[in-house]
Design brief:
The chain is an all-alpha fold. It has a single domain (24-449), classed as Amino acid/polyamine transporter I, CATH 1.20.1740.10. The chain is 70% helix and 0% strand. It contains 18 helices and no strands. Helix 5 (98-112) runs antiparallel to helix 14 (288-321). It starts with 23 loop residues before the first helix and ends in a 14-residue tail after the last helix.
Length: 455
């Protein structure tokens, strides 16, 4: 595919031939697809070891969803104010300084999306092997990344269709699993209503630590902010997509944990990583593991597709601002940032070949939380320093919802600093390397906020 030489002018969201940009339905699908990976299928076993209460577990996941919604409200305000693709790169650059935005963009554009893509692809290979024993995981992982990347290279129209179909299939399969679990599964002696002792679980350290890992499962609620510039009506559609997508996932997550607990003895779940397989075997018998493996495989395709779509948009937007990265801003005639997609494809493949994606994910977690924290804090800052800026959407529940998000995210960063100090410091070094790159290749500071680049 030949990239056009149109220069750094931003993609308007309109396709050649009269097609439209990304609809609110597709943007919602991207949010759902990016959020629902393997986290919800692997977390419960470790939570239920210390919190053997159905009500407390479901409350834990509900609280995680509420915190994600608090982030949604703030990101929606910023996205409606500054409707340009690239997420935190755009928001931090506008709220604070272009250098801060570049710091976030550097992490996202290099490994922030490539590492999760590699992890999801490797998980796809492993689950496919559980469905059809003998299949080689690494070639399958590489194959699914290449397949999805080729779809992305065909442009926004085909990407939208593929994303919508794959996400709908994912949700349908999960709903089918939920229905089967509640109908076929043998009810276990666990209560989902408040019981004596639940308050002690809720205020315990395991509940707080469990919330950290629940929030990781909810990560991706901001996915649509990376493609704002491709939306038909971003000021209206972005808040709707983020809110609808997060609410859908909140319901799915609570329901999945409920069906795991309803159909499977707590003793069988406790300490298990693959709780979905354990629950599948309890519901469907000997073939339960294969059924669950197939369901997760289909779901991971849509997750990889979402990340291969939104990740390159960060590098694309950085290329519009930084002359040294200009090549990544070039788009094909169908609107695909071809060089940015190929760059993320190469990085994801390198991480797969070297099996280094898990290490990368460990040390970028702190950096990603750091950027989200200051993005939401940017809403408060701009309300104080620039109260007259046009705000097509205003964060619901302000200032309480941003403060809730900041409190929980701050706790997560504290947890990582105390439990994984070397990983957290490594993530900080990655961000600092971004500042070095910015110092070398920047152009005039006003460039990132130049109105000629606004969508």
């Amino acid at each position: 595919m030949t990239a056009s030489d149109a220069g750094p002018a931003p993609w308007t969201g309109r396709l050649t031939g009269g097609g439209s940009g990304v609809s609110v339905l597709v943007a919602t699908a991207i949010v759902v697809a990016d959020m629902v990976g393997v986290g919800v299928f692997t977390s419960l076993g470790f939570q239920v070891k210390d919190i053997p209460s159905g009500f407390s577990i479901l409350l834990l996941w509900t609280v995680g969803g509420i915190v994600a919604l608090c982030g949604v409200f703030s990101y929606s305000e910023l996205g409606a104010m500054f409707p340009r693709s690239s997420g935190e790169y755009n928001f931090l650059g506008r709220a604070y300084h272009p250098a801060f935005g570049f710091l976030a963009g550097w992490v996202s554009a290099t490994v922030g999306f490539a590492a999760p893509v590699a992890l999801a692809a490797m998980a796809f290979g492993e689950y496919a092997k559980s469905v059809v024993p003998g299949l080689p995981p690494i070639p399958l992982a590489i194959g699914v990344v290449w397949l999805v990347s080729l779809v992305q290279l065909t442009g926004v129209r085909h990407s939208s269709t593929f994303q919508l179909i794959s996400t709908i299939l994912k949700v349908v399969l999960i709903v089918a699993f939920l229905v089967a679990g509640f109908i076929i599964g043998v009810p276990q002696p666990i209560a989902f209503t408040p019981q004596a002792g639940d308050l002690a679980h809720i205020v315990s350290a395991p509940f707080a630590i469990g919330l950290v890992f629940v929030m990781y499962s909810f990560s991706g609620w901001n996915a649509a902010t990376y493609i704002i510039g491709e939306m038909n009506m971003p000021q209206r559609d972005l808040p709707r997509a983020l809110l609808a997508g997060t609410l859908i996932v909140l319901v799915l997550y609570v329901a999945l944990n409920a069906v795991f607990l309803y159909s499977t003895p707590v003793s069988a779940l406790a300490g298990q990583l693959d709780v979905a397989r354990v629950a599948g075997s309890a519901i469907f018998g000997n073939f339960g593991g294969r059924i669950v493996g197939a369901m997760i495989c289909f779901g991971l395709i849509s997750s990889i597709s979402a990340m291969m779509w939104i990740g390159p948009r960060v590098m694309m937007t950085m290329g519009e601002d930084i002359p040294a990265l200009r090549v990544f801003s070039k788009r094909s005639v169908s609107g695909a940032p071809a060089y940015a997609i190929l760059f993320q494809l190469v990085v994801a493949n390198l991480l797969l070949f070297t099996r280094s994606f898990e290490a990368v994910l460990d040390f970028i977690q702190f950096a990603l939380l750091f950027c989200s924290f200051f993005t939401v804090a940017g809403v408060i800052k701009l309300r104080i320093t620039d109260p007259d800026l046009p705000r097509p959407y205003r964060a619901w529940g302000y200032p309480f919802t941003p403060l809730v998000f900041l409190l929980v995210t701050g706790f997560m960063m504290y947890y990582l600093l105390t439990e994984r100090p070397m990983h957290s410091l490594s993530g900080m070094l990655v961000m600092l390397s971004g500042l070095l790159i910015y110092a070398v290749f920047r152009r005039r500071p006003v460039a990132a906020g130049n109105s000629s680049h606004r969508e």
